[in-house]
């Protein structure tokens, strides 16, 4: 692959000085329609491989991640077949993250700013808003799930509060009074961490990822001790397939792994921009994805498998598993751990992304902090508990938005690596001058939009149309492949200097 040139003789960052218009603090030639301090290229990139490793630990270690990993072991495959599928799938994610990370790391710019090179300096709001809306929905749902864990613990120790957990007696817009208390507590805690800035977020994920691992290993060891090692098996769903029958099932598992990580994978540039070198990004991804995900999956399946002999039924929800343990200290520790884990994934996957995305829409008026708080407030008004409890609504809402993730990825990668051949002119990412390379027509690259829309329509159709149900699990690959192909044929490669 071609190497990106974040700065060259024609792309060096201009000195920070007042513009001719007297806009204090704005670099010469930059437009305040495109620039604020949060979206600016970083002067100091200080993250190392461990910080990226911790980022992925925080992203993987959640209630949703636990249930997802356990579900793959319940597909009816043998343990080695599931592990092969997991390794191949996470290997794809690792490679795809390395590709999308490079422009942001070298230029020091977040995902929506990097998108300007492909969609135009104003057209970049299309991929930014799409990713931001997906993050808002998931932010609310993850906050609700984490608060549910707290409510379970509270009721275990204070059963007299049970009436306040009854939505019919003490409820508002579908959530009980106790549920509201838990949800808003988590909402505020996450806002406090976010408001302290990226340095605080880095410290939080550096702590949260390893801390969750320690408790998960303790929980797994405790469950195996309770069950007896000889009673713990890894084939949670029983072996259902033999011979060549396993191949399509394994391919499905591989696709599901990629789809599960598609959101944070798309805007991974929001974090890779902080790394001191591209080598650090790749090392962090290797330890945080293949190695970390495999270890997490093994701990998850061992814990899940042990619930059958211990409790007499298979439990895939870790919160319920912790809630059934008799020892009060274990219940508190386990519930707090999964709460911290969910806060971690929520901040890195669903708070930071819309902060940059919404700030990109109107940099003059919306800062990074304001963009994040807009997303947080919006997550309350969508009443995520109703969204989560209505599978049809969440299916249509998130799958329609998610259908754009694959095509966006395909268009961005083809443009970065094959059309522009790795040339990224940083100055032109921030100018509305019609002579800028990324201005296009009215600031929008219509060729990129024309490639995105049909690819997204087909990807969404594969999810929503019953007759295409067989393709639903592969919607990310379908969308990414079509987006890449459509853009390759539509792109003006000669104008990009890649003829």
Explain how this protein is built.
This protein has 499 residues and is mostly helical. It has a single domain (49-490), classed as Hydantoin permease, CATH 1.10.4160.10. It is 64% helix and 1% strand. The chain has helices at residues 49-60, 63-72, 79-107, 111-119, 125-157, 177-195, 198-227, 246-260, 262-266, 269-272, 278-311, 318-323, 328-350, 352-361, 368-381, 384-388, 391-402, 405-419, 446-464, 475-490; strands spanning 171-172, 175-176. Strands 1-2 form a two-stranded antiparallel sheet. A hairpin with a 2-residue loop joins β1 and β2 (175-176). α1 packs across α7, α14 (352-361) crosses α15 and α18 (405-419) packs antiparallel against α19.
Would you count the extended β strands for me?
2
What is the CA–CA distance across the termini? Answer: 16 Å
Strand order of the largest sheet: 1-2
Helical/strand content category: mainly alpha
Based on CA inertia axes, which overall geometry fits? globular
Number of domains: 1
CATH architecture tag: Orthogonal Bundle
Instruction: Count up the helices.
Output: 20
Average pLDDT works out at 84
- Radius of gyration, whole Å: 23 Å
The name of the CATH superfamily reads Hydantoin permease
CATH topology tier name: Hydantoin permease
Low-pLDDT ranges: 1-24
**SSE series:** HHHHHEEHHHHHHHHHHHHHHH
Helix content: 55-70%
> Largest sheet, described in full?
2 strands, antiparallel
